[in-house]
Amino acid sequence: MGVSIEPWSVCTTPARALECGSVASKSKVMEKAASGKPQATSGGLQGKACGWQLVACSFQTTKVLRMPTFTARNPCCPLSFSFSPAIWLLLAALLVQCFYAAYYFWPFARRAPEPAAGPDDAPVSVLVCAHNEQANLARLLPLLLAQDYPAELLEIILIDDRSTDDTQQLARQFPRVHLVAVTHTPAGLAPKKYALTLGIKAARHERLLFTDADCVPATNQWVRLMQRGFAGPAELVLGYSAYGAEPGFLNKLIRFETLLTGAQFLSFAWRGQPYMGVGRNLGYTSAAFRSVKGFASHIRTLSGDDDLLVQDVVAAGARAAVVAEPAAHTLSVAEATWGAWWRQKRRHLSAGRQYRLADRIRLGLFVGANLLFYGVALGLLFSRADWVPLTTLFLLRTGLVVGVYQQLDRRLEGQLPAGWLPALDAAYFFYYLALGISLFLNRSLRWK
Prior knowledge:
Residues 125-248 form the Glycosyltransferase 2-like domain. The chain crosses the membrane at residues 86-106, 363-382, 420-441. This protein has 448 residues and is an alpha/beta fold. Among the domains are: 3-72, no CATH class; 113-354, Spore Coat Polysaccharide Biosynthesis Protein SpsA, Chain A (Alpha-Beta Complex), CATH 3.90.550.10. It is 44% helix and 16% strand. The protein is built from 13 helices and 16 strands. It has a seven-stranded mixed β-sheet with strand order 9-8-7-10-14-12-15, sandwiched between helices. It has a three-stranded mixed β-sheet with strand order 11-16-13. Strand 8, helix 4 (167-171) and strand 9 (177-182) form a beta-alpha-beta unit.
C-alpha cells in the first residue's frame, strides 16, 4: 500500500497555511517560521513543498500539534488509500453476493416451518414416468402406496415410456397402480414430455404431483404435505429433492450443487419470483397445464418438462407455493461417475436459454458475480501489491459462504460438512463455467 506514518511533532506554521511534502522540506519551513522572519511577497508568505504553492493568509504564527499522517502512494494526500481497479471489481462482486445472501438465502433459511396441520381431503394424482426403471420402481411403488393419505383420494399413475424391461409386469402386481403404456413417440417430439402428456390426460384428479422413478419420498407424509401447498391458494407447488450421501468428492459436489440450485429456485419463489422446479418433486393443477397447452411451446426440446413448464404457467398467471419441509422432500441416488453427471447437467442447463429475460438476468448476475470474484482473485495472486486487500476480501467471502450455506444446509437437511463448503463452492463455479462453455460449443444432447 505504501503507507507511511510520521511521528507526533510540534511545529510552528502560518495560520491556514497549506503544508505537505517530505520531512526535509517541512523542516525548512518550520525553521523559517520559528525565526519569525517569513519571506514576504506582494501577497504574503511563499514557499514550496511537493510542488504546492504556500500562500500565507496571515503573518501570525501558531503552534500546531501535527497528527500522524497515513499516506498511500501519494505523500501529499493524508488518509487516502489507492487500490488497483481489480480490487474494486472484486469488492463489487462480493457486494452482489452479499445482496443475494441477505435478500434471498438467509431469510429463506431462517423462515418459520410450514403449518403442521392443513386440509387433507382433496383428491390427488401422483404421476411417475419411467423408461426401463424396473429395479427402481420395485422400490418406489410400495412407498407411494404406503403414503399416509386416504386411499380413496390417492391415485398412482405409472407411465411406461417405451420400456423394454418388465416394467409393465411389475405394475400389474399392484392393483392400485394405474398403468399408462406408451409404445412409441411421434417423430420430433420430446419422449418424456409426450409420455407425461398422455399420463396427465389419464389422471382423474385436478391436483397432480410428480416424481421420478429413481426417487423415493423421504417420509410417508410426502403426499400430504405437498398437496397442502395447493391450499395457498396456488396452482404450482415447488418441492425439494436431495441426493443421498455417499463417500467421495463427486457425491459431495453433486449434493452441494443440488443445495445451491434448490436455494435459488425456492428462495426466489418465496420472494414471489418463481422460475423453475424439479420434476423429482413438483406439483401443479391440470387446469394450469391446460392453460398453457401443456408442453406445446417446447415439445421439441428434450429438457424442460419441469422448469420450462413452470416458466409458462407463471407467465400465464399461476401462483406458486414453496413446500421445503424435510418430511416433504424426495431422495435420489446421485450419479456415480463424472461423465454421467456431466451429461445430466448439460441436459438441465440447456433449457436455461429459454427462460424469461428477467430470470436470466437474475440468475446470470448471481453466477456471474461468483465467477468474476474467482477469476479476478486468481489474477491478483500475481500482484504482490494487492495481496493484503485480496486476502481480506477472500476471507470475508469465505465467512459469508460458510455462514449462509451452512444455514441453508440445515434448513434443507443436506448434511454437508461445513469445512468442505469453501472448496465445494469454488469447484462448483469452475465446473459451471466449463458446462457453459461446453453447451456454447456443442448443443447436442443425449437422452434415454
